[in-house]
Amino acid sequence: MPAYERKYFVGMPAPAGAIGAIGPLAAKMQFGDGWWTSEPAVVIWMIGVSLLVVSTLPMRKIHTFARIPQHGRPAAGGDSRSSWLRRFSTGTSPSW
């Protein structure tokens, strides 16, 4: 296996395909009825997502993207020394 192949999936991974499949539902909930909720648009969307899932197109793995060390941790990672956590662990109420 060439070294660059470790950075790619073959086809769209199933979890990403599932998220893609709920696109029309999310669009309807966010924007209401429109052309994006019409039967032809939903059928084309679902066929497109389905073809990506079963395709052999290389899809880049997200965790292989480089992260600049100066930007620190991602927001979802959390930090026990964050001011938010310190504020609530010491019993200080927020000022809103």
Quickly describe the structure.
The protein has helices spanning 14-21, 23-31, 39-54, 83-89, and strands spanning 8-10, 58-60.
Please give a structural write-up.
By secondary structure, this protein is mainly alpha-helical. The chain has a domain at 1-64. It has four helices and two strands. It has helices at 14-21, 23-31, 39-54, 83-89, and strands at 8-10, 58-60. A two-stranded antiparallel sheet has the order 1-2. Helix 1 packs antiparallel against helix 3 (39-54). The radius of gyration is 21 Å and the shape is flat. The relative contact order is 0.15. The mean pLDDT is 75.
Give the secondary structure arrangement, pairings included:
Blueprint: E1 8-10, H1 14-21, H2 23-31, H3 39-54, E2 58-60, H4 83-89
Antiparallel strand pairs: 1-2
Helix pairs in contact: 1-3
Mean pLDDT: 75
Helix and strand string, N-terminal first?
EHHHEH
Roughly what fraction of the amino acids lie in strands?
5-15%
As residue ranges, the low-confidence spans are: none
Using the CA coordinates, give the radius of gyration: 21 Å
Q: For the largest beta sheet, what order do the strands appear in spatially?
A: 1-2
The SS-based structural class is mainly alpha
Helix content: 40-55%
Brief descriptors of the model:
single chain, two-stranded antiparallel ribbon, flat, 42% helix, 96 residues, mainly alpha, 4 helices
